[in-house]
Write the structure tokens for this entry.
Amino acid sequence: MGRFGDRLFRGASLGASLVIIAIVVFVGVFLLWMAIPSLAADQVNFLTSREWQVGDSGNLRFGIAGLLWTTVLSSVVAMLIAVPISVGVALFITQYAPRRLAGPLAFVVNLLAAVPSIVFGLWGIIELAPRMQPISSFLEDSLGWIPLFRSGVSAGGTVLVASVVLAIMIIPIVTAISKDVFEQTPADQLEAALALGATRWEKIRMTVLPYGRSGVISASMLGLGRALGETIAVMIILSMPAPGDPFNPSVLAGGETFASKIANNAQEFDTPEKTGAYIAAGLVLFVVTFCVNAVARLIADRGRANP
Amino acid sequence: MTAELVDTRPQAQPEPLDLTRPRGARTAKNLLATVLVSAATLLALAPLVWILYSVITRGIRVVLNSNWWLQSQRGITPLMEGGGAYAAIVGTVEIALICTAIAVPLGVLGAIYLVEYARGTKIARVISFAVDILTGIPSIVAALFIFAFLITLLGLGRSAVAASFALVLLMLPTVLRSTEEMLKLVPDSLREASYALGVPKWKTIVKVVIPTALSGIVTGVLLGIARVMGETAPLLILVSYAMGINFNPGSGVMASLPTMINSLRDQPPGLPGFDRAWGAALTLILIVIALNLIGRGISRFSKLKEK
């Protein structure tokens, strides 16, 4: 029984692992297989066009330039907002807060990750967007000559509002990972800094920040990966430009991301050609998030190898 | 106290900080850092408080009505008062259960294979890589894959089961990674003690390793369920929303809390239907936070501590 049980158990766990590998390979191959015919039939350049006409399967015209811009812009702005705040929170939890407060504080920040993304979307468009109007007007008035702050939609559904919501959504993940690396700063380094007479901030600058740098960068990249793929919150918030509207690169404009484009048009997946176009867009999103996550992991591994 | 240490230090300066500069500037910097770090923490907590406040104040009236938990929305337009989230709650729970029933065995067995059988081998690296790819899959891409495969290619209809499949792709890596972490924490001495008594490997895993790690595994599973329950995009694409109750996950549209919020969010504020969107949001948040709290409560009693 022992021998047989061993073989059975080993087989079952190996089987499960192989199923997981098979799923991943199948997802990748299948998506490619579905996307290629549509890509081949595409009448415009897939990477540089902003057109999206997939209704007529004889004349598919679709390109991802606009989607890529909005996706990357909203996620990068979100990261610029979220990373400094997250590092601050992680420093507060590990270096400033009394021990009794640190645990509960980390838990409360984590609760932010428990809020479902559709609730973020609902709150973002109903509560946050109207209150961000003054900030948007200020940016438009003072920096409007830069294309990035050119006047866009007047209602709340701007890239900027979406970015703020995305930032809130990635704060818990960036904070949690940063906190973990900061906590592992070697005690002798901390003590050495204190022995030199460093103030608390100098101690942090000399030991905690250099030690945690690669961890923070990799945490930020993971957050970026999360922001790139976020669907529903962005879909609810962003105003969709009317077809034929001129391209507006501004954070004060609306737009569509890969994810929101796909989700917005779920009703359209009726022919393989149309579906293939959306799958091609989804694949680009998949590849971008994969690269970002891979970079995050590389940095984390290198940081671990020689701290 | 630290100031005295500074004043008596020898003049030779280690880089990068000049610790003999006038005390005032250094204290000021230290103070500034303290203020910024505390401000970041407040800034990170503000959205959580704000979101909880809006969801509770807007949703509480609807949720406190006992009909909310006992009735569906069948026959109720957004203009009418009444009805409840019963169908949506049942749908959400049903979809989460199907997803859990598939993801947990696969994830736990995969983790067992990784830790107990394949530690450090080539196949372990391949499995890890596959799981990493799954971790980075945006939910909309998972949904798109299931749609293209089950519905476009195989011609099956939309159903709760299809949505569950997409959620499995998202839950699987969470379960596998958290189980893997817990299994790694089980001390080898426990395994060796069991082998020394002549217990076969499979029995050691089932009777010694898993029970030791169980609370951690359960916590990971609960957090995975909580995360998956809030996912909206796969439900939107793969089951749509039904007002009435449908107990059959195998076919037809089914209500769920996220899609209920989504179907009501476009109503003008002030309509009873719009209030119910917030009621559904509050219900979903309550369920998800409860799962989080239970998960963390269980891990508190865990025999294994990460640090």
